[in-house]
Write a structure and sequence with these properties.
alpha/beta, nine-stranded mixed beta sheet, 11 strands, 22% helix, binds glutamine
Length: 223
């Protein structure tokens, strides 16, 4: 398997994401700098990690979405390559138009850093097939802009098409319909605010994030 983790100025979860990919797939991912004009060829999986790209200036993820490398990420997503955006990565995905809606300031106006209960809403996606349907898992969040917003029509479409992958099972940040993670139309792009890469070994306090990586790696026909 050939995976890549994209790093932007201000990313701070790129190392954790790379470690999670290597521990679970057995292969270290390529580390790709945002300013590179071209993505390496033949990628099977692309991860946009969490952090504070460009200091969250303008809007979280807005400037990173304009980085040269994103043209390649958008093209790869259109070819069906699985793309995972976590936290700031989710914000980059909405800002770049790969996912609908926006991540606004948390309803309580504070940074939230704790482990939350998440319900697996769709256990048949590329990213969630190793979870049991309706399972509630524990995954950490760490963000100030995690309040998911989309208009009612978009929300209804996301729900109707099974594109809500994860929903908060408790009150967290004011997200519309408690949405924590969504899929694109093709099901190969997932954006989520909680950090699965921070819950892959017992020393993290829980391993509920492992199945997400196992799901997507199992779906790849390459070893
Ligand atoms: N951990 C993160 O990726 C933080 C995301 C984002 N910059 C926020 O605080 O909303």
């Amino acid at each position: 398997m050939r995976a890549a983790v994209i790093t932007f100025p201000g990313s701070n979860c790129d190392r954790d994401m790379a470690v999670a990919i290597e521990k679970i797939s057995g292969r270290a991912p390529l580390r790709v700098w945002h300013g590179d004009a071209e993505l390496p060829d033949g990628l099977d999986f692309i991860a946009l990690p969490g952090g504070f790209s460009y200091g969250d200036y303008l809007r979280s993820g807005a400037m990173a979405a304009k980085s040269p490398i994103m043209q390649g990420v958008i093209a790869a997503a259109a070819r069906g390559v699985p793309v995972l955006g976590v936290c700031n990565g989710f914000q980059v995905l909405t800002e770049s138009g790969l996912l609908p809606g926006a991540l606004m300031r948390n309803a309580g106006q504070t940074f939230i850093c704790r482990t939350v209960a998440l319900k697996v809403e769709n256990s048949q996606s590329l990213f969630t097939s190793r979870y049991d349907a309706g399972r509630v898992i524990a995954i950490p969040v760490a963000h100030h802009d995690g309040n998911y917003f989309a208009d009612a029509e978009t929300l209804d479409r996301l729900e109707g098409e099974g594109r809500v992958a994860f929903r908060y099972a408790e009150s967290v940040n004011g997200s519309q319909r408690d949405i924590a993670g969504i899929l694109n139309e093709g099901g190969n792009v997932l954006g989520m605010m909680p950090h699965p890469e921070r819950a892959i070994e017992a020393d993290h306090g829980g391993i509920d994030g492992r199945a997400l990586f196992e799901s997507v790696f199992a779906s790849l026909s390459v070893a």
